């Protein structure tokens, strides 16, 4: 079964969101526990950080 282009884009977006969340979390907290939690949350943490920590 071949993957459609749409599902491929979604997987890349989710993967990028996770990587970005991990990077932001490590830079902000230097804690592996928070990296794990924020990596699971992915884009939710990225948006939270952008709205409330970075610009707030």
What does this structure look like?
Helix 1 packs across helix 3 (43-54). This protein has 56 residues and is mainly alpha-helical. It has helices spanning 5-29, 32-41, 43-54.
Secondary structure blueprint with pairings:
Layout lengths: L4 H25 L2 H10 L1 H12 L2
Helix pairs in contact: 1-2, 1-3
Helix content: over 70%
Runs in which pLDDT lies below 50 for 5 or more consecutive residues are none
The mean pLDDT is 90
Count of DSSP E strands? 0
Using only C-alpha atoms, the radius of gyration works out to 13 Å
What spatial form do the alpha-carbon principal axes imply? globular
How many strands, which pairing sense, and closed or not: the largest β-sheet? Answer: none
The number of helical segments is 3
**Topology order in helix (H) and strand (E) letters:** HHH
What fraction of the residues are assigned to beta strands by DSSP? under 5%
Spatial separation of the terminal alpha carbons: 46 Å
The secondary structure category is mainly alpha
Short description:
With 56 residues, the chain is mainly alpha-helical.
List keywords for this structure.
single chain, 56 residues, mainly alpha, 84% helix
């Amino acid at each position: 079964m071949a993957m459609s282009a749409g599902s491929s884009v979604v997987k890349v977006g989710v993967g990028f969101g996770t990587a970005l969340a991990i990077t932001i979390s490590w830079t902000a907290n230097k804690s592996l526990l928070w990296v794990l939690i924020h990596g699971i949350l992915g884009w939710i943490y990225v948006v939270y950080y952008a709205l409330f920590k970075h610009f707030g």
